[in-house]
Amino acid sequence: MLKSNAERKLKHLFDGGDWNVYEPNILKLGVGAPGTDIMAANCDNFRAATDHCLEREKRENQSLIFQYGPPSGTFEVRREISTYFTEMFQSPVNSEDLIITTGATQGFHLILSTMLDFEGFVFVDEYTFMVALDMIKHFSTLTIVPVKLNDDGVDLRDLEEQVFKRRFQSKKKEFWGIYYTIPTYHNPTGILFSPEVCRGIVQLARKYDFLVVCDDVYNILSYGEKPTRLMSYDVRTDADFGGHVISNGSFSKVLGPGVRLGWLELPPRLKPIIDGCGFANSSGCFNNYTSGIVGSLFELKLAQKQIAVAYEAYKERMLATTQVLRDELPACCKLVSPTGGYFIWVRIPDQLDCREFLKYCLENHKIYFIVGTRFSADGQSGKQFFRLSIAFYPKEKLVDGARRLCNALKDYIVKH
Ligand SMILES: Cc1ncc(COP(=O)(O)O)c(C=O)c1O
């Protein structure tokens, strides 16, 4: 155990260790956060929004933005979010269904701590967001159950088999089980769940009464046709509707992770569970001040402008990087070109091990990526995969990196 808390004076999360994006000689193709250039207008935009918000507070609201807020967040802010996303998703997002959070990470933690029996099960895709796995493991009485993932989403047969074996009647919490997933531009695989798979997940959730948590942080970033989000398949007018899906949203990828603002969208039977919990009540809205500023950012149409800037940059980066990979990856490797989001998932031949390939890349080509094993619950499966991200670097750097990576892979395959 460490005996002291050595001060590291980091400026941000990707400023040290394996992740250090300022290491000049190594290209970090793993970083899942917006690059500095994407957020270049934020200081001016947030200054204008802050002035707008605080002037109104002084004039009309007696500075209530500094008070404990309503546990779900103020109506005005939830209305701005619901209006924007109703248009974006072309399906209704109701202000009354929203709870403001400090981002999707907190949103998921909140769901785990309030909705799930602590003796229960969390079903996850066989490769999933690594930090979600770390979080679930902290609830040490929960059991993680990986489920097979296909190119069009979770394998429904395997999900049903796993769920069927584990289900029980919880006497303590609303749910005995949660299926946690990222159905739209999945992390790490980049895939989009098909309508059939989304429909099937909702049917299973209703049949076995488990909760589906959709980590929807990449929904905004569709580079082709806009998909229908999984939550929309849990149709409220269905005779057997119960409310089995929560959408966990965030502004981290488009306004900036440091803003720490997100929202949960919940069906009527579930919202009171969080609204009424001590954590939400004692916090009095998790982020009353920041959400007020972001509300103004939307009112002034600056958020919309900033989201459009981020969207265009990511789209250009994704199209350029995947083009290089399609052209130059060795034929024995597999790539599913994502139609949105941040991530590209590459499969190399089974006899190779990406952990060894990463060492080779770092030593010989100065390229860093994340090995597939980081995304599996046991930390062992996934050695034949690696994940790239298009978020952080400008297009030119990504294209150069992708080209160097393909060359490295060709050399490595010849040598092994
Ligand atoms: C699937 C997924 N969920 C959540 C997060 C983090 O979201 P937030 O910054 O809103 O906590 C990320 C970011 O890497 C992610 O990829």
From TrEMBL:
Gene3D superfamilies: Aspartate Aminotransferase, domain 1, Type I PLP-dependent aspartate aminotransferase-like (Major domain)
CDD domains (UniProt xref): AAT_like
SUPFAM superfamilies from the UniProt entry: PLP-dependent transferases
GO terms, molecular function: 2-aminoadipate transaminase activity; pyridoxal phosphate binding
Any single Pfam family the record assigns to this protein: Aminotran_1_2
Residue span, Aminotransferase class I/classII large domain: 26-404
PANTHER family on file: AMINOTRANSFERASE (PTHR42858), LD15494P (PTHR42858:SF1)
Name used for this protein in its record: Uncharacterized protein, isoform A
Species this chain originates from: Drosophila yakuba (Fruit fly)
